[in-house]
Write a structure and sequence with these properties.
The protein is mostly beta strands. The chain contains 1 helix and 18 strands. It has one helix at residues 73-82; strands spanning 8-10, 16-17, 20-23, 28-29, 36-39, 42-45, 53-55, 87-91, 94-97, 113-115, 119-123, 129-132, 140-142, 148-151, 154-159, 174-175, 182-185, 188-193. It has a 5-stranded parallel beta sheet with strand order 7-8-11-14-17, covered by helices on one side. A 4-stranded parallel beta sheet has the order 9-12-15-18, with no helix packed on it. Strands 1-3-4 form a 3-stranded antiparallel beta sheet, with no helix packed on it. It is globular, with a radius of gyration of 18 Å. The model is unreliable at 1-15 and 39-44 (pLDDT under 50).
């Protein structure tokens, strides 16, 4: 007799997808694939950017790894998190709004951008490179002892009141409570909410 294993595929509803398989018998998921682009009836992989510099190519809030064709801020941060050592993300002009809701999550899948390794973010100019939290969370959470630098951006519409922890002080835009070195230059903060 032969046994047959059934798999299902899950995708994110956006032009770029990451796939993972679900094994119902073992009740577990495979790791996420690299970015996949779906167009019509075609499915093909996007060539990944390899770092240590990642360039954002879309204003959409797409999860996954940073590809040459489609790379969101979230995907660039995820790729930087997965590559050991300090990395740099270049963000061109545009308004980049977080739209994937969800708090109490620290792996960069939902809500704020979770920075898990040393990172520098370079916008083009503070008046034209805009990171918008969409009032669904703060913008960044920096992991313990991680160095983070952000330059030439506007950060706006951040909301840290959704999951305030009375035992610590969180930033309206950046939660760097346990982080290492933090540097912010040539940047604007506007319309942020947090408990004082």
């Amino acid at each position: 007799p032969t046994t047959q294993t059934q798999y299902t595929v899950s995708c994110f509803a956006s032009p770029t997808y990451r796939l993972r398989l679900y094994h119902p018998i073992q009740d577990e998921y495979s790791p996420y694939s690299d970015s996949i682009i779906f167009g019509g009836n075609n499915c093909f992989e996007d060539t990944p950017q390899t770092g240590p510099t990642f360039t954002v190519t879309t204003t959409e809030d797409l999860p996954g790894n940073c590809g040459v064709t489609y790379c969101s801020v979230r995907a660039a941060i995820e790729s930087a998190n997965e590559q050991p050592g300090a990395n740099t993300i270049i963000i061109p002009d545009g308004i980049y709004t977080t739209t994937i809701e969800g708090v109490y999550e620290d792996s960069n899948r939902t809500g704020d951008y979770d920075v898990l390794d040393d990172l520098t973010i370079l916008g083009n100019a503070s008046g034209t490179t805009i990171l918008d939290a969409g009032k669904i969370d703060r913008l960044f959470e920096i992991a313990e002892d991680i160095s983070f630098s952000i330059n030439n951006v506007t950060m706006q519409n951040s909301n840290d009141t959704l999951w305030y922890d009375y035992n610590e002080i969180n930033g309206a835009f950046i939660d760097a409570y346990y982080a290492g070195n933090i540097a912010i230059s040539n940047s604007i903060f506007q319309n942020g909410f947090a408990y004082l």
